[in-house]
Design the sequence.
């Protein structure tokens, strides 16, 4: 190699980064996604001052216009290569096509899915057939919702709402744990819960109660609300729980055994605001209040075993302990199945005597301060 050419070559190499930016006349298709290899990978000595008798081919066909560089800036002309650019990326530099993830058909678990759905729907049918049989044709019943003279005073409607919100969460959890994606498990959980509710009402249509469109409406609202909260991420702020409370027996003066159906007197249903989640969304520091829940409650008393003048429809407000937030503060993981089950339990079950609040008896316009049990107000005429 002519040593007189070395200074010019070094000058060209130094100018190369800027020259690449001014390749207006050159074919530079693929520069953005390729790799410009100044020194190609080789097992031989990569030095540009090779001692081999072979001519230097590193920049073969590249011309350096020194006079143009002096007046117009640095300019490097690269010859076109047949079928592509002089700077075309090497095959190894081509962008990789991402591997296809499993399609819906590949993620279906037919036997497990049929077992889960079949078991749920079968349980719903069996539960409806435990009711008082009706020896007649299939029939419908308009039960009403939360009126004073409705069956169970509306406690059954609150039960349908919360029960199917909880059922959705249990089904979604189960489908996700057998391998479904989040969105798939959510829709499968919702569809299965709704199918179970419809099955229950069809079964009730063969009993003394009849098919109740009000019950099915509350089933739908419960499952749909739980799914919507989860899909939107708002389940960290709102939720539903079921609880048990102690109850007073009906006074001897006022027992009424003419009623039929389930006694809801020992049950309470809550719609909760989680203060920790609310604080995260509204960006304020709740302090110790992050471990509390603010709940709207509903329950009835005496609709199965007390005379009409004693029965109570109880709407309440209470402050309770948010056990799930305490678990998070203690660092209990949610990812293992046992951790998720613990969180599921405390997110859906109201433990007795873990809240204080007030309840208003809609039937008698009376207020109660209570930690759980709501006593009867015995009429003074007895």
Sequence:
């Amino acid at each position: 190699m002519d040593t007189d050419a070395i200074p010019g070559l070094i000058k060209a190499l130094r100018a190369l980064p800027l020259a690449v930016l001014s390749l207006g006349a050159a074919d530079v298709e693929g520069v953005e996604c390729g790799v410009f290899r100044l020194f190609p990978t080789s097992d031989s000595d990569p030095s540009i001052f090779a001692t081999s008798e072979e001519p230097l081919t590193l920049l073969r066909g590249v011309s350096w216009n020194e006079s143009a560089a002096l007046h117009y800036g640095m300019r490097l002309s690269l010859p076109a290569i047949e079928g592509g650019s002089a700077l075309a990326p090497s095959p190894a530099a081509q962008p990789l096509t991402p591997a296809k993830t499993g399609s819906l058909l590949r993620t279906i678990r037919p036997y497990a899915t049929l077992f889960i759905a079949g078991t749920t729907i079968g349980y719903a049918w069996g539960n409806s057939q435990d009711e008082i049989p009706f020896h007649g044709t299939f029939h419908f019943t308009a039960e009403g919702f939360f009126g004073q003279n409705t069956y169970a005073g509306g406690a059954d409607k609150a039960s349908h709402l919360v029960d199917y919100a909880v059922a959705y969460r249990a089904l979604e959890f189960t489908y996700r744990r057998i391998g479904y994606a989040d969105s798939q498990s959510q829709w499968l959980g919702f569809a299965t819960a709704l199918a179970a509710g419809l099955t229950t009402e069809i079964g009730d249509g063969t009993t003394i109660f009849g098919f109740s469109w009000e019950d099915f409406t509350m089933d739908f609202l419960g499952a749909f609300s739980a799914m919507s909260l989860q899909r939107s991420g708002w389940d960290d702020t709102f939720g539903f729980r079921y609880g048990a409370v102690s109850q007073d027996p009906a006074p001897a003066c006022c027992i009424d055994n003419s009623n039929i159906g389930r006694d809801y007197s020992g049950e309470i249903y809550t719609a909760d605001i989680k203060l920790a989640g609310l604080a995260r969304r509204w960006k304020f520091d709740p302090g110790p209040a992050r471990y509390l829940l603010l709940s709207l409650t509903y329950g009835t008393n005496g609709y199965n075993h007390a005379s009409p003048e004693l029965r109570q429809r109880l709407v309440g407000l209470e402050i309770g302990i948010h056990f799930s937030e305490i678990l998070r503060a203690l660092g209990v993981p949610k990812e293992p199945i046992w951790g998720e089950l613990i969180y599921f339990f405390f997110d859906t079950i109201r433990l007795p005597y873990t809240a204080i609040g007030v309840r208003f008896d809609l039937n008698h316009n009376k207020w109660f301060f209570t930690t759980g049990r709501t006593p009867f107000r015995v009429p003074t005429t007895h």
